[in-house]
Structures are given as C-alpha cells and as structure tokens.
C-alpha cells in the first residue's frame, strides 16, 4: 500500500482547489438547508414526521445531497478527466498498485464528504437547533454505507462514460430526478403512483429515509431498505470492474 | 556490454493494422537509442510495450532482465518514463507532483526536490501544472521520469511541439542524463534530433524497422553526394571548368546559381575558392548541403519524413 496516504492527501487537496467540487459538495447542501429552513417553517404535509423543527427534518436531505454531489462530481468527473489527460496512464507506469490507487481516491472522497457533512451539522446546530433523537452510531453507519454506495455508482459512471463530456451529461441528467424523487424534501407518498416504486429503488431514497427515521427516533423496522443499497453496490461494482479503462 | 533492452520478433496488431511488425533490437548500457519514423509508424506502440503498458501479440521483450508482461511491478520500479501525451493532475503544483511521484517508489532519490534545480523549474515550483508552457511541462515530465533514479529512461517524442530554443535546451538535458551513465530509448519525428542525440538510430515505417545503425553509418551507406551551391556573374564560360574541380561529379546551373555535386564537399570548396581567386570571379551566396538522416528516410521509403 505504498503511496496510499500521499495520494489520498494529494487528491483531497486537489478537491479543495476545484471550485465545482467546493461549491456543490460544501456550499450547495448548506445553502439548500439554510434556504429551506428559513423560508418554510414545516415539512410539506404528508411526510408523516412530527415533533421536531423543520431544520431537523431537512438535515438528512442535506446529508444526502453532500453524498450525492461529492461522489458524482468527485468520482466520474475526476476519473474521466484523468483518463482523457492520460494522468491515469502516467500513474500506471509507476509501481503504484491499482488497489492502492482506488483506495486512496476513495479515502480522499470520503474525507471530503465528511467535511461537507460537518459543515451542515455545525450550521444546523448553531443556527437552527437541529436534533437527532435516535442513535448516532446508526446515523454514522448509514452515512458510511451511503458513501460506499455512491462511490461505487460514481466509479461505474466514470468507467462507462466514454469521455469527460459524456460523464458530465450523464451526471446532470440523473442529478435533478435524483434530488426530486429521493424524498429529500418531497414525500414519496405525494408523487404519482406509477413513479413511487422507481423513486423507492433510487439509491439515495433509502439513505435519506433511514437517516430521517433516526433523526425522529422512529424504530428502524424498515431495514430491508438497506438491501436496495447492497444491490446498487453490487451492480455498480460489476460495471466498474467490467468497464474500467486506464486510457 | 550489458544488454538493457532486448526485443525479439515483437508483433502488435490492432484489427487489420499491424502496428508493430516483427521488430527485433537490442540496446546496450549507456546508449542513447533513437526510434525515428513518421506518424502512425508504430513508435508509441513499441515503446509502450517495452514500458509494460501494452501487451505484445507475439515475440518477447526483456528490460533489465525483466519481462514487462509478467514482472510489470518490478519493472516499473526501475524505469523512468515520459509518455507522448504527458500530463499529471491539472491543479497539482510542480513541487507537489514531484514529491508525490517520488513517494510511489521503493527507492526514490534521497532529495527529489533537487530535480527542480536540475531542470530549471525552481521559479515554477509552486505553479499549477496546467498553467505551465509546453516546454515547462516537458521538463516536469523529465523530472518525474528521474524521481526513482532509473537505470533506463524512455522518452516518447520529448520535443514535439517545442520551439527551437526549448528543443535545444531539452537536448542538453538528455545529454546530461546520458553523461550520468543512464541508458535512453527515445522516439522522434526529427532526424536532426536523432543525429544530435543518438548513438544508434532505428528507422521504423509501417511497423517495420527498415534501417538500424549509427547516424554516420546510415548516411555513409547512402552514398549520397554533397552539394556546393553559389552564385557567380558570367559563370557560363566557367561552368565547364568547374567540372574539373576536385571530387566534382556533375555541375548544374539554375538561372545564375551553380550547383556542384561532389563526393567530398570540403575538398571541392577549397579548390573552388582558389580557382575563383585565380580567375578573378566574384562568388556569392556560397552554401553547402550535406546529406543527413532526412535523406536516409527519403531514400529508403521514397517519402519525406514529415509533410
Ligand atoms: N489503442 C489502439 N487501438 C487501435 N489502433 C491503434 C492503437 N494504438 C495505435 N494504433 C494504430 O497503430 C499504428 C501505430 O500507432 P502509434 O501510435 O504506435 O504510432 P506512432 O509512430 O507513435 O505515431 P505518432 O508519431 O503519431 O505518435 C497506427 O496505425 C495507429 O492507428
Ligand atoms: Mg507516438
């Protein structure tokens, strides 16, 4: 694993130098939370959640946004960019192992995501008195699982996208429906019936829903939802291994 | 002498294209070996097979006694590489990049940052890679190829796209590396570059090596003549007499320019000057043209190396 930490640290620093990455993963979710918490005082009727302020309701959505943005912009965009500019090829002709490379990129992305989530928690705590009634351990565990799922999906997109441009198109095409249909703020129950199963199959939905259950201290009897994440990890993993190219 | 790179009957196909066709060559320690050929000749394909980045369809390759297919990890520890399309993370700073790459090797240079000085990159140490000029990027590429103090280096079109001054500077760097006793395998479009830098040159065309020797031998074997060109007023009467000058085989006259074809340019030139003095002729625009590796390519293939 020689080179693991230097590579991870270097990628993390490069993420901080990338305005797209900083805006979408650090600033945008925080702005989204603040904006919604200030404008609306309570959830859209039909959410079925009661007892906490609106900022607490929004927190899981903000965290989901950080996970989505950091992995979608961090992984496929970086991967296709490095492939097109032959950075991957240059790294490949050094003795660094493929596994080391993959792990170091993952670590830097995870750390970046964690920074984004901390920004949300700090803002939420200081200005909006957000609360989490359920277990913090479960909360962190679900976040971690969500990050792994989205790292896998990001790698899969980066591997099948034929170019940097194509990766951009794919990502922005998925991005909006993902935000609208994953229960970040719109309850699935109020969506048209035909779209509900699709929304439930989206990878962001279970992350968001379970996190929200934990925030409200609702008993976690819907753990089958984690199966959706496992399914996504397996599919994305297979696509990555099958389609990954160095150049 | 120790053999550093050895290729035997190496073949690589892409569909119907035979990118590298039955290439055999061997490079000795301390040698600068050049692979010269036009676009699409197979230079990159061959050099990248040797670097362990592509797998040959046929034949065998050995580098420092290692097999690039089966012992790629070990090989990558020991070679230095500059790729044709060289690039590192666009936003990384030069100094960071050099340190990062050094950290990937088992035995990096004790102080890789000294490379900044060697390659005159000190004032660019904190610049981002994407903001560098083409010449500076190439120097970073050379620095990265040196971070593990490799015994053998591979340069794929090191000077393509550089202006003449940057090219000359790069040549000096290559000569410095050679002076350290390292072996160098380079590819180029430029015959003058091959002549300047290489101990031996292989000419490759359509995947096949069509000539391999020292630049001097390649030119000599051509048996081509040099030319002495000049202008002279009223040279019409003298033209016949020019033919009698030492080593001249033929005289041509185009408008008022006279061209002497000679097998020994220097001897002809000396006699010409003496002759003109005696006859009271005024010579102008005297030039000589010696055959070079470009002529070698033209003769071997019937085509110019670059259009
Ligand atoms: N990955 C590939 N897939 C398909 N064909 C390829 C591939 N790489 C090279 N070729 C083909 O093999 C031949 C040799 O290409 P190569 O890049 O080795 O030439 P080159 O001598 O390096 O040319 P240049 O001077 O333009 O860099 C070309 O016809 C090229 O189209
Ligand atoms: Mg090439």
What's the short version?
Chain A is an all-alpha fold and 247 residues long. Chain A contains ten helices and no strands.
Folded structure, characterized:
- The complex is a heterodimer of chains A (about 250) and B (about 300).
- Chain A has about 250 residues and is mostly helical.
- Chain A has one domain.
- Chain A contains ten helices and no strands.
- The longest helix of chain A has about 30 residues, at about 55-85.
- Chain A is globular, with a radius of gyration of 18 Å.
- Chain A starts with a helix and ends with a helix.
- The mean pLDDT of chain A is about 90.
- Chain B has about 300 residues and is of the alpha/beta class.
- Chain B has two domains: about 5-220, Rossmann fold; about 225-290, Alpha-Beta Plaits.
- In chain B, about 35% of the residues lie in helices and about 30% in strands.
- Chain B is built from eleven helices and 13 strands.
- In chain B, the strands form three sheets. A six-stranded mixed beta sheet of chain B has the order 5-6-7-3-8-9, with helices on both faces. Chain B has a four-stranded antiparallel beta sheet with strand order 11-12-10-13.
- In chain B, helix 8 (about 215-220) crosses helix 11.
- The model of chain B has no long low-confidence stretch (mean pLDDT about 90).
- Classes of the chains: A mainly alpha (about 250), B alpha/beta (about 300).
- The interface of A and B includes residues 2 and 94 of A.
Low-confidence segments of chain B: none
Distance between the termini of chain A: 23 Å
The level of helicity of chain B is 25-40%
CATH class of the largest domain in chain B: Alpha Beta
Structural class of chain B: alpha/beta
Q: Could you name the CATH topology of the largest domain in chain B?
A: Rossmann fold
Instruction: Report the biggest beta sheet of chain A as strand number plus sense, adding barrel if it closes.
Output: none
Largest interface: A-B, 23 and 27 residues
- Fourth-level CATH superfamily of the largest domain in chain B: P-loop containing nucleotide triphosphate hydrolases
Q: How does the overall form of chain B come out from the CA principal axes?
A: elongated
Oligomeric state of the chains present here: heterodimer
Helix- and strand-based class of chain A? Answer: mainly alpha
CATH 2nd-level architecture of the largest domain in chain B: 3-Layer(aba) Sandwich
Q: Please, how many domains of chain B?
A: 2
Report the β-strand fraction of chain A as a percent range.
under 5%
Associated small molecules: adenosine-5'-triphosphate, magnesium ion
């Amino acid at each position: 694993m020689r080179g693991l930490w230097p590579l991870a640290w270097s990628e993390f620093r490069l993420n901080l130098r990338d305005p797209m990455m900083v805006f979408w993963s650090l600033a945008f979710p925080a702005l989204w939370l603040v904006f919604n918490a200030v404008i609306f005082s309570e959830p859209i009727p039909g959410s079925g959640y009661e007892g906490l302020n609106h900022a607490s309701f929004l927190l899981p959505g903000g965290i989901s946004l950080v996970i989505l943005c950091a992995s979608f912009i961090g992984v496929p965009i970086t991967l296709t960019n490095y492939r097109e500019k032959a950075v991957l090829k240059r790294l490949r002709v050094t003795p660094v192992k493929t596994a080391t490379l993959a792990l170091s990129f993952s670590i830097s992305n995870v750390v970046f995501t964690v920074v984004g989530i901390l920004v949300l928690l700090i803002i939420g705590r200081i200005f909006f008195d957000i609360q989490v009634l359920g277990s913090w351990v479960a909360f962190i565990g679900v976040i971690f699982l969500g990050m792994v799922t989205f790292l896998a999906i990001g790698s899969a997109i980066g591997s099948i996208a034929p170019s940097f441009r194509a990766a951009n198109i794919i990502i922005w095409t998925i991005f909006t429906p993902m935000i609208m249909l994953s229960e970040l703020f719109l309850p699935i129950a109020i969506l048209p019936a035909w779209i509900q199963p699709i929304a439930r199959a989206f990878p962001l939905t279970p992350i968001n829903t379970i996190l929200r259950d934990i925030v409200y201290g609702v008993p976690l009897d819907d753990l089958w939802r984690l199966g959706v994440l496992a399914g996504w990890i397996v599919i994305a993993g297979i696509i990555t291994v099958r389609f990954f190219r160095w150049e | 002498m120790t053999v550093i790179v050895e290729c035997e009957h190496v073949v690589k196909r892409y569909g119907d294209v035979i990118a590298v066709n039955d290439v055999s060559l061997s490079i000795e320690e301390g040698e600068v070996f050049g692979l010269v050929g036009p676009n699409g000749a197979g230079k990159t394909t061959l050099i990248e097979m040797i670097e362990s980045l592509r797998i040959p369809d046929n034949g065998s390759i050995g580098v420092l006694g290692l097999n690039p297919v089966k012992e790629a990890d070990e090989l990558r520890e020991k070679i230095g590489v500059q790729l044709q399309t060289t690039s590192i993370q666009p936003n990384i700073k030069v100094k960071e990049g050099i340190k990062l790459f050094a950290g990937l090797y088992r035995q990096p240079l004790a102080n890789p940052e000294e490379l900044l000085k060697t390659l005159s990159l000190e004032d660019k140490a904190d610049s981002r890679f994407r903001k560098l000029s083409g010449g500076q990027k190439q120097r970073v590429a050379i620095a990265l190829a040196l971070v593990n103090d490799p015994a053998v280096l591979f340069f794929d079109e090191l000077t393509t796209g550089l202006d003449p001054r940057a090219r000359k500077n790069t040549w000096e760097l290559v000569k410095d590396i050679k002076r350290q006793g390292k072996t160098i395998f380079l590819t180029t479009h430029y015959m003058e570059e091959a002549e300047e830098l290489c101990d031996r040159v292989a000419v490759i065309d359509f995947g096949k090596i069509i000539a391999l020797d020292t630049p001097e031998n390649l030119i000599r074997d051509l048996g081509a003549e040099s030319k002495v060109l000049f202008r002279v007023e009223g040279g019409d009467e003298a033209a016949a007499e020019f033919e009698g000058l030492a080593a001249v085989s033929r005289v041509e006259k185009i408008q008022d320019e006279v061209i002497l074809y000679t097998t020994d340019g220097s001897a002809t030139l000396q006699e010409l000057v003496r002759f003109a003095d005696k006859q009271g002729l005024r010579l102008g625009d005297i030039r000589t043209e010696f055959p070079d590796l470009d002529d070698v390519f033209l003769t071997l293939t019937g085509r110019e190396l670059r259009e």
